[in-house]
Specification:
With 382 residues, this protein is mainly beta. It contains 2 helices and 30 strands. Strands 14, 15, 16, 17 and 18 form a 5-stranded antiparallel β-sheet that branches. Strands 19, 20, 21, 22 and 23 form a 5-stranded antiparallel β-sheet that branches. It has a 4-stranded antiparallel β-sheet with strand order 1-30-29-28, with no helix packed on it. A hairpin with a 4-residue loop joins strand 20 and strand 21.
Length: 382
């Protein structure tokens, strides 16, 4: 649902402190209308694990260092491959990122592709690696060979972006198409030809997130800025089918995955963040077992946390994570009801980047100038 440009920016801002059910946060969440929703590097959930997996013991899982000396890194795991990005030029300059295909075992770079701007999101679909990026106010879609990272297509999406990275383009696969959210437009692209086949204007959107279910039979978008919505659309035509109630938000909420008839949504309010489960049919928040008590805060059931809290489906598992959250606030969960299965064995400042092929990948100190990418096997309890 992975660490796009907005997620990387949040990692390097000063507002990563954990804020739970404080009185100020409660007042702000109440002011947001009691209806919630909030945004990894990829909306590519793969539901291969059974929801009723039994807890299991075993030896302590040991992390392995994959790469050192990264700057503002992101990662995406797909089809047994690991893709890593980092900023090439110095801090303070307009970011220029490189995309690498990396050996998950050794960290050796197998292929490299400069992106001439800031990486936003990656998605494996129809035998190609699709990547979105921004450069100033421009946004781009790249079609790359997954092994060599050779460029098969490069498409200018638009030049009306805000240039801040907050509206970095997102993408998903649904209805046999690629769908891209770019500032205030939904763009439909043929995964066979790479050509734009439809553009839909979304009034009032200051950025759009897109998501689907594993079969591609559902298309969701989240749009807006301070007042946002979750929308369900026809995955073939993009026609609007249903819209949620208004959601108070810093920017558009993050739809982290669809599991059955449930939608996992994360949202940042400016002073706190939260995770909620929405009904796919009604786009309303629903009760769920993993919701945490929040005395004095009037809102639907939720998991409260910092602005960077996120729930996303990766490698068939629901992950609830937040920067500087420690083990108790970073965990894998039941994708049906959000109940905690196992704490993530990270350091207190770690940040999850991606998961795939039975491993999770994370940076140990997300606030450091130079980051170390580590990996560890996914706990059998997950």
């Amino acid at each position: 649902m992975i660490h796009d440009a907005r997620a990387r920016q949040r990692r390097h801002r000063a507002g990563a402190a954990i804020v739970l059910a404080a009185a100020a946060a409660g007042a702000l969440l109440l002011a947001s209308g009691g209806s919630g929703a909030g945004r990894g590097i990829s909306h590519r959930p793969a539901h291969r694990r059974p929801p009723g997996r039994q807890a299991a013991g075993g030896a302590q899982l040991r992390p392995v260092v994959v790469m050192r000396g990264l700057r503002r890194s992101a990662a995406y795991a797909a089809d047994g491959s690991l893709y890593v990005t980092q900023q090439l030029n110095a801090y303070g300059l307009a970011p220029v990122d490189a995309l690498w295909r990396v050996s998950p075992a050794s960290g050796r770079i197998r292929a490299s592709r400069p992106l001439d701007g800031t990486f936003s999101q990656a998605l494996m679909a129809s035998g190609s690696l699709w990547v979105t990026s921004t450069s100033g106010a421009r946004s781009w879609l790249w079609r790359l060979d997954p092994a060599s990272l050779a460029v098969d297509e490069r498409l200018l999406l638009g030049s009306n972006g805000d240039g801040s990275g907050e509206a970095a383009p997102t993408l998903t696969a649904a209805g046999g198409w690629l769908w891209i959210g770019d500032l205030d437009r939904l763009i439909r692209v043929s995964s066979a030809t790479g050509a734009v086949t439809e553009t839909i204007h979304v009034p009032g959107a200051g950025g759009i997130g897109v998501a689907s279910n594993p079969s591609g039979g559902v298309l969701l978008d989240s749009e807006g800025r301070q007042i946002a919505h979750i929308q369900r659309r026809d995955p073939r035509t993009g026609r609007l089918l249903r819209q949620s109630a208004p959601i108070g938000s810093v920017s558009f909420p993050y739809v982290g995955g669809v599991y059955g008839d449930s939608v996992w949504v994360s949202n940042a309010t400016g002073m706190a963040g939260y995770v909620q489960r929405f009904s796919l049919a009604t786009l309303k928040p629903t009760r769920f077992a993993g919701a945490k008590p929040h005395p004095g805060v009037t809102m639907p059931p939720a998991i409260l946390g910092a602005n960077g809290i996120r729930a996303q489906m990766l490698d068939g598992i629901l992950w609830v994570t937040q920067p500087a959250g420690g083990r108790q606030l970073n965990y894998c969960a039941n994708p049906l009801n959000g109940a905690t299965r196992a704490s993530l064995q990270f350091g207190p400042e770690a940040q999850l980047l991606t998961a795939g092929a039975g491993h999770v990948y994370y940076v140990q100190n997300a606030q450091a100038r130079y980051e170390t990418l580590d990996s560890v096997r996914i706990s059998p309890r997950c």
